[in-house]
Amino acid sequence: MEMGWLTPEVISTSGYYELPPIGESPKAYKITHGFAPDEFLLIENRAATSFDSKIPKEGLLIWHIDNEGKHKPDSAVGPNGDHYRVTLIQADGNHDLELGVNRGDEGDVFGAGATIGIGFTGEGDTVYPNTDSYRGGAVTPTGIEISVISDPDENGYVSFSVTFPDDPLPELTPPTSTPTSVPKLELVRKELMTTFAGGTGSYGVMFDVVAMNGLTITSADLHVSTGEDDGEKAVEIYTALGTHLGIETSPEKWAKVCCARKIVGNGLVKRTPVDSSIWLDKVTMAPGERRAFYITSDEPIVRYSRSEKSDCCDVFATSSQLQIEEGQGVGAYPWGKRLKPRIWNVSSYQASFAVCLLSVYDHCPLNLVLLL
Predict the structure, then answer these.
(1) What percent of the chain has pLDDT over 70?
(2) Nearest to 192 by CA among 176, 210, 170, 171
(3) Domain for residue 43, yes or no?
(4) What is the pTM of this model?
């Protein structure tokens, strides 16, 4: 950072975040909330590529930076001792680096399932690792928790959550399946949900849908991992009559139906609407018709879930209106390697004249509005 190679993005609100391998994309996050001036946490994602090919474990490294700390403290272990200006918070809490036990091991990395939060409560022993401030040896809990850490996905991306005091994480509970009235549209919906597991993503996903009744697709809410600060992103939606199996690398078999221009994503947890104004064509499906969809981007921002099955593509969810099947992730743009099987996280809403197909990455990404 001091050399100007990287300017970390500041996290100031509770939410879900994602980092690419820092060796491939110079991106990191910084947390200053609750810390003294010029003291902060720095979060980066390290993958076993390039100069990091020999690292003992992939995942998040969380650094505690205090620019008023010492370069060579007398004691850097304990709640009230001196501390280094730059400290790697070791996930196992063993302080091996400070004690000179080793030069780093797999216990230093925050991997799937790891959590870091308050260390000093005023009673009992201090919990290590933690997110406490320790400027001048005065330990002050920030109340920050970093959790919900994922394994690296196919492109090495790691997702995680950050929670600040008095700012709860966005609700992950799926929408209720109880019919809900929408007065302006006089529309009653009920939900068909596949999964809220999420956890991975890449350049795209292919999957099949079977219409039980006649449908016309006119718009979509996508789930992409990029937000407003990342600028406009190119997203493409293709469709083909029949199954996607056997035509995964045959672009001539597919018709592009979206999008006429780039979109600005709303990031993880939030829906990114793609309304009918930028669709190139609507998609009409007759009763009983099977149709393949391919949603892709020239960057690995499309989210989906791994399946427990080894073969593609079983029926994952069905209703009186729709049948949704497991699909295949696409590991390179535009018609690259397949990563199968993958579950295109979906919930569908049905009504007397409308059906919505809602994809979810732990929380609601893609919404295809299907008008009867």
Answers:
(1) 75
(2) 176
(3) yes
(4) 0.59
